[in-house]
Design a protein that fits this description.
about 500 residues, alpha/beta, Nucleotidyltransferase, domain 5, 2 domains, six-stranded mixed beta sheet, 21 strands, binds adenosine-5'-diphosphate, binds ribulose-5-phosphate, kinase, ATPase_NBD, FGGY_RbtK-like, Carb_kinase_FGGY
Length: about 500
């Protein structure tokens, strides 16, 4: 039984729907992690830049992981459930059934994923309007946000999808609806991805100007006209049907959701750093930058007053830490880019065989291989003749240019394991330089940052963490002490951390 020893008073379940998998955690009332489970989810790429998922597939995966983490406990001690997910667009008809977001008419694939870049002409036209709401997303709307995708559906799938649609959800809000039957949306998703304003609500002039006056006409019922702060309790809690699906007791409290990067940012930015002799101890929470690095990387910086950073999303009020403004930098593909570069190399089969023989991940093997070939100088010098520009999927921040492409200079005729290891290193360094570019943009606009706090899959890669310290750090002393890789988020410590920083 998880947690052993003294029976805690209460349990809480958190579900994190990432790009590649669904994860669930069971924690007690102190925030101590008691159990963890993950379950892969399907992704479809029917054509280049079209990325789709299934809401039914994701909900089923949620049930697999929640049932696993509550095995062996008294489920009647479970007090609450919360969801976070990627900001993908879920489409349902008026009876809440999935609708196809593809030309094949496959309604099982009813999600346009966050990294989908199909709506290029739509987002170009939206940005050409120079409408005022664009000042809340760094001046340029991303093709990955919801308005361009909604316009694409109206212009391309009018009969098979748009005219039949009853509900458009951000994925985190779909999950809380599925759990409670409540269609209220979270302030987090609507403010960050839909142009909703916490103080003014929807801006009719924006939706009319871009050709989506449909939403204004029905008072935004399809995209949400009841908005709650993240963490607010929804309706009567978990419905009996959802309780059966998830293996949890009906009626437990279900929280209004968060986008995945915002949940990771909230968990990390308030980390309790006392007693580690770190430079950031006693520094304000606004001097911390949370970097949620997985398939993508999201750079979450908060401030007491709004800061406009050209090319960086936000400023968003109370979208992550209540009472604070949020700026979100980002790199659309980081883990995905490293996987793409490594798996596409001619020496990958040899790498895979050697890593398997050593019972290591390919990244652990590559990291040790780099140490083997680095000779006398620090490993970072191995790429003195090889450089990567990482914008293989456009530049999210701070250049905010979806047309940019990736680049590699310094290639030779050889394609052996050494070449693969050095190309992998150059890619990791390029991503760290991208983070440095985002930090410089944030600081030029008014942020004062001293420490990076990493979480997500890439924070398990010591080379990725070290290159971020080396490339973004200010001095040798600060480099060693300034980066705090928080791989195991423990809410109890973070709650204490937020109290340290003076924020309850
Ligand atoms: N132990 C590890 N070492 C190196 N890279 C890792 C490790 N674990 C996960 N990753 C990378 O992190 C990315 C997935 O990040 P994760 O946060 O787990 O998922 P998601 O993006 O779905 O939220 C993938 O690119 C994967 O290769
Ligand atoms: O835009 C987002 C957050 O604002 C996406 O949800 C995020 O970039 C995807 O996260 P991950 O890389 O963990 O799958």
């Amino acid at each position: 039984m998880p947690g052993g020893g003294q029976e805690p008073g209460s349990y809480y379940v958190g579900v994190d729907v990432g790009t590649g998998s669904v994860r669930a955690a069971l924690v007690d009332q102190r925030g101590v992690l008691l159990a963890f489970a993950d379950q892969p989810i399907n992704q479809w790429e029917p054509q280049f830049n079209h990325h789709e998922q299934s809401s039914e597939d994701i909900w089923a995966a949620c049930g697999v992981v929640t049932k696993k983490v509550v095995q062996g406990i008294d489920v009647n001690r479970i007090r609450g459930l919360g969801f976070d997910a990627t900001c993908s667009l879920v489409v349902l008809d008026k009876q809440f059934r999935p609708l196809p977001v593809n030309h094949e008419g496959d309604s099982h694939r009813n999600i346009i994923m966050w990294l989908d870049h199909r709506a290029v002409s739509q987002v170009h036209r939206i940005n050409e309007t120079k409408h005022g709401v664009l000042q809340c997303v760094g001046g340029v709307m991303s093709v990955e946000m919801q308005a361009p995708k909604l316009l694409w559906l109206k212009e391309n799938l009018r009969e098979t999808c748009w005219d039949k649609a009853g509900h458009f959800f951000d994925l985190p809000d779909f999950l809380s609806w599925k759990a409670t039957g409540v269609t209220a949306r979270s302030l987090c998703s609507l403010v960050c991805k839909w142009t909703y304003s916490a103080e003014k609500g929807w801006d009719d002039s924006f939706w009319k100007l871009i050709g989506l006056e449909d939403f204004v006409a029905d008072n935004y019922s399809k995209i949400g006209n009841q908005v709650l702060p993240p963490g607010a309790s929804l309706g009567n809690g978990l419905t009996p049907e959802a309780a059966r699906d998830l293996g949890l007791p009906a009626g437990i409290a279900v929280a209004a959701s968060l986008i995945d990067a915002h949940a990771g940012g909230l968990g990390v930015i308030g980390a309790d750093v006392r007693g580690h002799g770190l430079a950031c101890e006693g520094q304000p929470v606004t001097s911390r930058l949370a970097v949620i690095c997985g398939t993508s990387s999201c750079h979450m910086g908060i401030s007491k007053d709004p800061i406009f950073v050209p090319g960086v999303w936000g400023p968003y009020f109370s979208a992550m830490v209540p009472g604070f403004w949020l700026n979100e930098g980002g790199q659309s593909v980081t883990g995905k880019l490293i996987d793409h570069v490594v798996q596409g190399h001619a020496a990958f089969p040899e790498l895979q065989a050697k890593a398997t023989a050593r019972c290591q991940s390919v990244y652990a093997y590559l990291n040790s291989h780099l140490d083997l070939i680095k000779k006398a100088r620090p490993v970072g010098f191995l790429t003195v003749d090889l450089h990567v520009w990482p914008d293989f999927h456009g530049n999210r921040s701070p250049l905010a240019d979806l047309t940019l492409k990736g680049m590699v200079t310094g290639l030779k005729l050889s394609q052996d394991l050494d070449d693969l290891a050095i190309l992998y290193l150059a890619t990791v360094q390029a991503i760290a330089f991208g983070t440095r570019l985002i930090i410089e943009a944030l600081e030029a606009a008014g942020h004062s940052l001293s420490t990076l706090f990493l979480c997500g899959g890439l924070s398990k890669n010591p080379l990725f963490v070290q290159m971020h310290a080396d490339i973004t750090g200010k001095s040798e002393e600060e480099q060693r002490r300034s980066l705090w890789a928080w791989q195991q988020i423990c809410p109890a410590k973070n709650r204490t951390g937020l109290e340290i920083a003076g924020y309850k």
